[in-house]
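FAQ
Q: What does a multi-component entry look like?
A: The components come first, one per line:
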Amino acid sequence: MIALTAVSIAVLFSSCGKIPQAEIDAANAAIEAANTAGASVYVAEDFAALQDSMRAVNENVEAQNGKLFKNFDAVKAQLAVVSQMAADTKAKTETRKEEVKQEVAALQAEVATLVASNNELIAQAPKGKEGAAALEAIKGDNGLIETSLTEVSDLVAAENFMAALDKAKAAKEKGDAINAELSEVIAKYAKNKKR
Amino acid sequence: MRRLKRGVVWGFWLIVFIAVVTVFAIYKRPQPPVAELKVAREALHEAQKANADRYAREAYSSASNAYDSAMRYWAIENERFFLFRNYSKVDFWIAQAIENSLKAGELSGQRVALSDNKLKEGLAKLERQANLYECHYKHMPLPASVIKAHNKGVLKLSEAKFSWQNKRFDEAEGHLAQAESLLNSSNVKAEKIVREWFGAHGNWQKQVQQAIQMSKGGKKVILVDKLAHTSKVYQSGKVIRSFDVELGMNWMGDKQHKGDKATPEGIYRITQKKDGARTKFYRAMLLNYPNDDDRARFAAAKRNGSLPVRADIGGLIEIHGLGGKGVDWTDGCIALSNDDIDVLYRIVGVGTPVIIVGSVRSVDEILR
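Then the predicted structure of the entire assembly, as tokens:
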């Protein structure tokens, strides 16, 4: 009877009193995965909350470590929550990242269309010396947008979507301005030609 | 028996004493600073929320390291027998973590506010600079390198604006610095070119006065202001008609030689009027370019080597129709819309003086 009680107590202490290292490692790995996915960039507040939660768990681990009769059951439950939080944060990061990626892709397509449309307008524009005079500078401008578009592609390839987004937005703004300017030049020329 | 009884009593009191001492020791054992550590962690979290890890990196890093040190010393103390634990080092690092976190949060807030303000002002300033270029220099035939620098600057400025709007201040500052360098360079170079051209302004002013003077006897005089892109007809010292004009693609500066696409500057007169099949520009009035001054200047330029020996001075500078395109497109002629050339063709004749100046207004008035 005494032996049985001793074994039971031993089992009880061995199950509750051991640091849940596997769970801690899993939670840290999940946090690192979220970070690698870009959580600190795309969902910075969520990532900060996640790191704070993990720190709180580590404090609880040490609090139990300092006790004579350790019980990590609560810690394990917290670790499960943190791991889930990390997985959610990673998923949220990927969703946000995908949204930004899609936004960049949409802008890239829009700017590419704009560049093509601008090139078409340049082709339609008055030929001869008057055309050259009007369009030489604009052609250069359109070339800059094309260069910018290549830089956006490089940033996308490097998964730097936020920087790519700024660049793509800037390229679109400039592309729109060129388009408007070209249309104005051509309209003015066409109006004069009718006379 | 009495000795045994005394022994039991002593034993009892000894156990009681040990028990009391043990309970007292447990009760008075050093306690880990759990609540303080929580405060440190929360302070660190607040600093992180204030973007201190980005905008006050050093201070945040110190705070984070201090917190980690506190945790490490707590773990070390936990290895000791509970009665011999000493949390003074943990306390020290907690205090450091709290202090540095507060500092980092504050610093980050200040830097963000400063950066936000700096960017706001910088963007507004550079937008003004870009607008200044658009207003004064955009339609000038400037070197390709100046135009390219301006256009690149405008793109960078736009990037800076979007980074700023997305609250990515450090990147916005980087873009803004690049935009500033490009826009400054293009504006400075453009202004230098314009001011150099305006070196002849004194002469232009005299020619303008001459034009007005010449018209005072009732004679019609045409005064072309290249910068303003206008052609005014003076009679009796007053402007009787004004037309918009388009010039040579490279209109800024005096004409040097054939093919430079510059519109000449100087005092000319109409030598011939053409219409119908005699011109491909609807209606035209030929000027006596090159005049004696042009020839002398051209010869001097050849002599001093600034023009090649085989260079041609050119000719066939006209005031003609087919203008109104909104761009400077001629090889050096002055183009008016067909409606305007009809009027001008009707009111002036062969021999009418045509005075072409760079600008009536001074450079300071223009760039004000």
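Q: Is there any commentary attached?
A: Sometimes. For this entry: Residues 43 and 90 of chain A are 9 Å apart (CA to CA).
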